[in-house]
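Risk register update: the risk that structure generation would not scale has been downgraded. Supporting records follow, first protein first.
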Amino acid sequence: MDGASRIKQLPDEVVSRIAAGEVVENPASVLRELLENSIDAGATRIDIVVEEGGKKLIKVQDDGQGMNAREIELAVKRFTTSKISSVDDLESIGTLGFRGEALYAIGSVSRLTIRSKSADEDTGYEGYFEEAELVELKPAPIAAGTTVTVRDLFFNFPVRRKFLGADYAESRRIIEVVTDYALAHPKISFSLRIDAKDIMNLGPAQSPIERIRQIYGDDFIEETIELTAKFGERLMIYGILSRPDRVKKSPLTQMLFVNGRRIKDNRLRAAIYQAYEQGKMHPQYILFVEVDPRFVDFNIHPQKKEVKFHRTLRMYEKLMKSVRETLNRSRTIYSHLGEMPTMRVVEAPSPPAEETGGRQMEIGEMQPTLRPQEKREEIRDESTYIPEKIWQIHDSYIIAQVRSGFIIVDQHAAHERILYEKLRKRKYNTQNFLFPIVLNLTPKEFAVFQDISGILEGYGFRIKILSGRTVVIEGAADIFKNPTKEIFLEIIDELHEVKSLPDRHLELLKTLACKAAIKAGDKLSGEEMNALLDQLFSCENPFFCPHGRPTVIKISLDELERKFARNL
C-alpha cells in the first residue's frame, strides 16, 4: 500500500471559501449579519442602501458604538468578536451575532469597506479589504457610528455568483430581512432604499404592536387579537394572532421570533395550528418569544435560523396553551363564533401537492389528450346538451346530458379557462370602480406590486400610487364582477415567488382568471349554467383550466350501463 496519506489538510484559501459559504448564502444573508452587528452595537437608527439585489452594493449605516483603527482591522479576522470571551459565555448568549465569522466571511467574497468612529475618538477611520485581507487603512471624516459597504458580492467566486437569483428576487429577500429585524426591534428606526427607490422608512415605535401597524397597516391589526403570556422569569410570549373568524385560505403572514431573531420551527407552527383547530384554514400571526438565554441554543445552525429549546422549558405546550387561552378569551368578544372545538393533536398542514392527471371518480376518467379531429368530435358531442336537462349539485358542479351520456363540469375550473382566454386574447373592457380600492401595502407587497404594475396596466388596470406604499386601483378588466381589496392582495401575495418575467406574465394571467372566476359554493341559475357551458366549449382548450386541472368529466352511456350491469 502506498505510504502517502489520502487525507490532507485543506489550504487556508479553501477553508475560507467553505466558511464563507456557511454564512454567506446570498445578499440577504450578508445584510442579516450586518444588521445584527448594528443592533448589537446599540444603534438607534439603521439606514440601508441596496443596488442590483445586493449583488452590486449593500450599504449599512448605523449610529451605534463605533470602532477605532485597530478594531476595524481585527473585525475582519476570523474568530474575532466583541460578543463573547469564554466558553461560559456560549451558555448564555444575549447578543444577536456571536460567531466571530460574519465580517471575515463577507470580506472573503466581496470588496469590503468599513468606515467607523468611536464616540470617544477624535477621528474616524476607513478600512478597505479584499478577500478578507486589509488593503488600506486611513483616517476618514465620519460621525460616530459605523458604515459597512459590501461591493461586488462573490466577485472572486463566479460559480456561486451565477446561482444567485434575479435582482428583484434577491431584493425581496432583502425586504423580508429588514422587515424581520424592524419587527423584532421596534425602538430602532430603519430605512431601506433599493435601486434609488424608497421602500421603507420607519421611525421608532413605542411597542411591537405599533411597529406591526407601521408595516402592515390598520386593516391587518383589526383582524387580529393580542396575546401576552408570561411563565415565571424564564419565558414570555407576546404578539398578535388572527381572530378565529379571520383565518385565511393561505398562510400569508406567519412569523415567530425568539430573542430578537426570526426562526423556522415546524413543531411550534403545529402547536399554533392545534390551538386553532380550523381544518384547512390558516391563522396569521406575528409572535415574539423572550426566553432566558441559558434555555435556548442558536448554535445549531450557521445562520442562526433554527433554535433548540431546553426540554424543561416545554415550549411546544406553553405556546399552544398561550394561543388557545387567547382564542378562548376572544369568544366573549366574538360570541357569534360559538364554542372553541375540543383539543386534539393535528399537524400543521403542508401546501397541497399539485394535482395531476388520473382517474377523477370511480365511474369516469379525466378527458384524454385528443387528436384534432377527435377533439372536434368530442367538443361537438359535449357541447350539444339539452338546456332543460342541466343541474347544479353542491353549488359547485354542473351536470348536463349530452348525446352519448352526460358530463360533469367543475364550475370554477371552467370559468377560469373562459376568463384566462379572454385575458390572453384581450377580449374585455376596462371598467371604472364606483368606489376605488385603496391598498396599504407592506414593503414586500409593494416591491412585488412595482414588478407587476406595468403588466397589470397592460390588462386593463387603472392604478395610482399615492404617498408611501399606498396604491389606489380605480378600475380593472370587467371580468371582475365583485372586486375587493382581499382579491388584489391575494394576487400580489401569490406572485411574490414567481421569478422570470415570462413566468410572471403567465402566472399573473392565471391568477387574475382564478380570482375573478365564480367559486365552488356559488349558486347559479339555469341561464347562468347554460351561458357558462356555451362559453367553455367555445374555448380553444375547454378541457383543462389554466393550472392544468380538468374542467369536464364525461360518463358515457356504455360505461353507465356496465356499472349497472345492464349490458351483461
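Supporting record for the second protein:
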Amino acid sequence: MNEEIKVLGEIFEQSTKNFPNKLALKKGDTEYTFAQLKDAVIKLKNYLLGLGLKKGDKFSVIGENRPEWAIGYLAIVRAGLVCVPLDPMLKEGEIIHVLRESESRGILSSENHLYKIEGVKGELKNLKWIIPLNSIKELDVGEDIPAGQIDPDSLAVLIFTSGTTGTSKAVMLSHNNIISNVKSLQSAIRLDENDTMVSIIPMHHTFEATCGFFYPLYCGAGIYYPPSLKPNDLQATMKSARVTCLIAVPLLFEKFLHAVYRKVTRSSMPTKILFNTISGIGSVFKFLRKPLFARVRREMGLEHIRIAIAGGAALPAKVAQGLELFGIPVLQGYGLTESSPVISVSPLKNSKNDSVGLPLPDVEVKINDPDTSGIGEIMARGPNVMLGYYKNQQATDEVLKGGWLYTGDLGRIDKNGYLYIIGRMKSLIVTQTGKNIYPEELEEKLIKSEWIEEILIVPRINPETKKEEICAIIYPHYELLEQYSISKGITLTEPDIQLIYKDEIKKCNENLPVYKKITRFEIREEEFPKTTTKKIKRHLFIERGIKV
C-alpha cells in the first residue's frame, strides 16, 4: 500500500485519492477532510516558497496539538524545507538555543505561544518570519510553486532531544527514515480508513509524530484532537471520535485504571464483589471480560476501542494486565528518536507483557557484548536509523558504528526473538564487588504495590559508613492512604506511613540476593518531575545526587 510515497509531505496522498471526503483531522469545530487537508498543505507550501525560502532551509513549528500544527509540519517538508518541531513547554532561553542552533528562518506558532517567540526574536538573527497558525485558514495563494525534486534521503526533520543548552543534541531524520518506519508499522499495527484516533502525546515528540500523525494519515484513519487533557475533555473527545485505536504513554493508561478503580470503590457491594472476582479470573475466562466491563469502557469513551498502544516509557505489567481485564488489547513498543522512533512492537497475538515485542520488518536488533544472563547494550540497524546528530560528529560517532545504532539501553533477546528492556546503561548501578544492579528491575517489583504511585531506585552514599547503598525514593498513593484512614476510622501518622513502606521494601527484598537488596528509602510529598512523555527525570536524582 502506498509504496510510491517517498517524501514525507506526500504521506497522505493515497488516502486523499481513495477517501477525499473522509475526515482526516478534527478539533472542536475545525475539521479537514483529506481533500481539504491536501488543499491547505499545498497553499501553505506555496506561501512558504513564495517567501523566497530555499530547499534545506530550517523552519520551526510550536503549539498545542491541533490540525493547523499538522498542516504546518506537512507544508514545511512538502516545500523541501526542514521542519524543526519545538516542545511548547520550553522556556525562553531554551527556545533561543533551539532556534539559534537550528538556524531556523521562521516559525509557525499557535497564538498561545506567540508571546514567547516575539520575546526572543531580537536574539535571533536568522529568524525572519513569525506566522500565527490561525492565519493558515486565511491563505489564498493562487499560483502553485513547485518545490522541485526532493531527495528521499535528504534531511526532513531536526529534533532536539533536550532543550537544555548544555546537553541538547539535534537528531537528523530523513524523509526515508520516517517513511520506512511508517511502512514497517503496517505489519504490527493494522489501521485503515475505518479507524479513528485521539491525539494525546505532544506532536513534537517523534513517537506521536510517526505513530499518531503520519501513520494514521497514511492509512486513511481520522485523527481527533481534544480541547485539553482534562479527563472530561478527553472522555468527550473519545466518545465523539468513537476511538478505535489509542496511543498514549503508560502514565495515562495508569491514570485511566485508577479512575476505573475509584468508580468501583464508590459502587454497590455486589459490583465490588463482581469486580474483585473477575480480577482474579484466569485466561480461560477472557471472553467474559469484554461484556462484563462494557459499561465501564462506554463511560470512559472506549466503547469502540480495539487496540491500545503504549510507548515513550516502560509499561508496568500491572497496567497491561489491568487493560486486558477490561477487554482492551494492549501493545507496547520500543524505540528512540534516533530510530524514527520504532524499533520493536509486541504482536497482538502471542504478546508478552514483560517484553517490548519483536523487531519491525527491515529493522535488525542484536545485543552487544552480552553478559552471562544475555544482557548487554541494545543495537539496532535499518533504514529508520537517523542520519546523525546535527553539527555534532563526535556525538554521532559515539552512537553510530558500522551502520548500527548503539541505543544506550540494556536488554536481552529470548530464544523466540522477543526483546526485553532491562534499563538504561546510565542508570546501571555497579557495586564495589563488581555486581550489576538494574534499577528498573527493582522498580518493576515495587510498583506492583498498591501503596506506591511512583518509584525510583538510585544509589545513595550512607553518611555514616560512606558506602553506597540502594535507595528507594517513593511517591505514595496518597489517595489510597486517605481511603484506608477513613475506612479504619484512624489518622495515619508519619511512623504509620513509614511502617507501611518499610513492609513493602521487606517484601521486595525477600527473594533478592544480598547485593540487590534495598537498604533505605525516602518518601516524597510530590510527584517526580517528568519529561513531556511522562518519564521521570532520573538524571536529577542520580547525576546531582539531590532531592527535588
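The chain is about 35% helix and 20% strand. On this basis the risk owner (M.S.) recommends closing the item.
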